[in-house]
Each structure stands twice: as structure tokens, then as C-alpha cells.
């Protein structure tokens, strides 16, 4: 028994290390993409709110990585590995959301360069940044509370998928989407771009559709989810939906 354990341990540690490296590389590339889609369209680097947003994302990515690596390392493999069993409709929705997210940053950058939107008070932008940080915190909280927090909609049978019902899941069934929706709108406001609300609204609509489709999938395919849905009635907004 001890011999087998010692033989398996190095392999397990090696796989965990690879997952950590993949996760960190992905997050670093995401930050570089964020900076590029903001500052290249803006045509300058002295954009305070742009750097503030990048700084918050850097802090969030670092904190999230530390939390996930220490508390739930197997989630790294799920979020960075192949998406076996993922729904085709989900891949389509995710692709469009990704394009809308890039578009939101590019539009905000162009707006900063050409001044399409009327100036917003700095206080409003600061409040939006705080709201953005809180929304990202909610997203991380959902990830910590749900060890099956995948980037794609699928039932993770190989990991003995069970229902997450702790943390923010006591209030709504899809708190991660709540954080994403709020952060999309807060980003546009923090960057002072009313035009960036157009792709933000598209993102919100797609996330609402994805929530409905994912909720239906979980009701049909995940054991215990019907009972959980009976206890937690609302998907995104308590008292409404």
C-alpha cells in the first residue's frame, strides 16, 4: 500500500503542477489581452481608469489563483483541460460572449480616444470600479463554493458531480453569472463609455439565455438538483427570476 502511494504521488504532483502552470499562463494571457484591447484603441497609455481596471483584474486573478490552488486544485484541470461532454449550444454562446467582451473593451478604448460619450463624474467611475471588484469577488466566492465550477456546461460524471448548495448558492442558483453580468455593466461605467453598454447588454442577454439552458440541463441530468431548485427558487435575481 505504501509503495503504491509513493509511486502515485509524484505523478499526481506533476499533473497538479502542469494544471497550475496552464492556469497561470491563461490568466496572464487574459490580462495582456485586456490591456491590449483597452490601450491600443485608446491610442495612449496614460489612461488612469484603464490601468485601474487592469490592476483590479490582476489582483483578482492573483487572489483567485491562490484560493483555487490551495483549496480546490482539481478545479484547475476542469477549467483548463478539454471539455468532454460540453453542450454544443454552450460553445456557441461562449464564443459570442467572448467576442462581446473583446468588443466592449475595444469600444471603450475608441470612446476614450474620440470622446463619443459625455464625460462622467470621477466619483461615478470610482463607484463603478468598486462595484466591479465586488462582482469579481462574488464570482470567486461562487468558484470556491462550487468545486464543479466549470467553464462549460456539462455534467462531470468522472468527478462524481454533485449539487453545490453552500455560500452564495444559498441565495441564487447561478451566482457566478450574477457576478459576470454586474461586472460587464460596471466595466463600461468605470471606463466612462456609454457606447460600451451595447456589447455589455448583449453579454447580459446571452448570459440570461445560458442560465436558462444550463438550469434546464441540471434539472434533467444532475441528481439532486430538482430538490435543490425547490429550496432555492431563483436563478439570478431573488424575488424575480
Which labels suit this protein?
8 helices, disordered N terminus, 71% helix, single chain, 241 residues, mainly alpha, Four Helix Bundle (Hemerythrin (Met), subunit A)
Brief description of this entry?
This protein is mainly α and 241 residues long. It contains eight helices and no strands. It has helices at residues 2-42, 48-71, 74-80, 88-114, 122-145, 175-190, 197-221, 225-231.
Describe the structure.
- This protein has 241 residues and is mainly α.
- It has one domain (2-231): Four Helix Bundle (Hemerythrin (Met), subunit A), CATH 1.20.120.
- The protein is built from eight helices and no strands.
- The protein has helices at residues 2-42, 48-71, 74-80, 88-114, 122-145, 175-190, 197-221, 225-231.
- α2 runs parallel beside α5 (122-145).
- The longest helix is centred in the N-terminal third of the chain and has 41 residues, at 2-42.
- 29% of the residues are buried.
Strand and helix map with partners:
Layout: H1 2-42, H2 48-71, H3 74-80, H4 88-114, H5 122-145, H6 175-190, H7 197-221, H8 225-231
Tally of DSSP helical segments:
8
CATH architecture: Up-down Bundle
Straight-line distance between termini: 52 Å
User: Given the C-alpha coordinates, what overall shape results?
Assistant: globular
Amino acid at each position: 500500500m505504501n509503495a503504491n502511494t509513493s509511486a502515485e504521488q509524484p505523478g499526481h504532483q506533476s499533473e497538479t503542477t502542469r494544471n497550475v502552470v496552464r492556469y497561470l499562463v491563461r490568466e496572464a494571457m487574459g490580462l495582456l489581452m485586456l490591456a491590449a484591447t483597452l490601450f491600443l484603441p485608446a491610442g495612449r497609455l496614460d489612461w488612469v481608469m484603464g490601468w485601474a481596471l487592469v490592476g483590479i483584474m490582476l489582483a483578482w486573478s492573483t487572489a483567485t489563483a491562490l484560493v483555487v490552488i490551495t483549496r480546490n486544485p482539481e478545479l484547475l484541470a476542469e477549467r483548463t483541460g478539454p471539455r468532454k461532454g460540453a453542450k454544443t449550444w454552450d460553445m456557441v454562446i461562449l464564443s459570442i460572449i467572448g467576442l462581446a467582451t473583446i468588443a466592449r473593451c475595444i469600444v471603450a478604448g475608441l470612446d476614450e480616444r474620440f470622446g463619443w460619450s459625455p464625460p462622467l463624474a470621477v466619483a461615478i467611475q470610482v463607484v463603478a470600479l468598486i462595484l466591479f471588484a465586488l462582482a469579481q469577488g462574488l464570482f470567486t466566492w461562487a468558484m470556491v463554493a462550487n468545486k464543479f465550477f466549470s467553464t462549460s456546461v456539462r455534467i462531470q460524471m468522472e468527478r462524481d458531480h454533485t449539487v453545490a448548495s453552500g455560500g452564495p448558492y444559498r441565495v441564487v442558483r447561478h451566482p457566478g453569472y450574477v457576478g459576470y453580468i454586474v461586472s460587464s455593466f460596471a466595466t463600461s461605467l468605470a471606463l466612462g463609455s456609454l457606447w460600451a453598454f451595447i456589447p455589455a447588454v448583449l453579454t447580459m442577454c446571452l448570459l440570461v439565455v445560458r442560465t436558462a439552458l444550463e438550469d434546464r440541463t441540471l434539472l434533467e441530468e444532475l441528481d439532486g438538483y430538482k430538490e435543490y431548485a425547490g429550496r432555492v427558487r431563483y436563478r439570478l435575481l431573488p424575488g424575480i427570476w
